[in-house]
Amino acid sequence: MYKIIKNKRAQEEIVGFAVIVVIVAVIILFFLVFSLSSDRETEESYEIQSFLQAATAYTSNCGDKSEFLPVSKLIAACYREERCNNEEYSCDVLNETLVGLIAESWPIGPDFPTKGYKLEAIAPDKTIISISSGNATNVYKGASQVLPVAEEGLVVYFTIYY
Fold this sequence. Notes:
Number of strands: 7
Structural class: alpha+beta
CATH class of the largest domain: Alpha Beta
Radius of gyration: 27 Å
Strand content: 15-25%
Number of helices: 4
CATH topology of the largest domain: Ribosomal protein S3 C-terminal domain
Strand order of the largest sheet: 1-6-7-4-5
Largest sheet: 5 strands, mixed
Number of domains: 2
């Protein structure tokens, strides 16, 4: 009789230990799923932020009455549907300039780490320009920049897919 009681207590301790192990495993699994799902959110990248700052300061081929416009002012001109001195649409020049800058800085393809990109300039009431190329993957980084030259509240978003 004494052996039966002793064996029952050992079995109860083993069951208790197994329950604790299962609880710890569920907690670890929860944290693992949570940490993996946060990879899908856009991470700020200083490299991408630096590119955005340089790109918006880049001088375009679109001139107004006194100077050639930087991309930041060209985005505002595109929002206002203005034309350049040579009568080209500012949005066409903006698209051409941004596609060229991105192609030189972030080449995409199977031989490169960059698999795709998306750049958008957005005003509160509409999307001014949206440029994308390549494949959108679950691994990406991005940045945004508010344009200081525009009173309209224009924001540029740039995302790189790896």
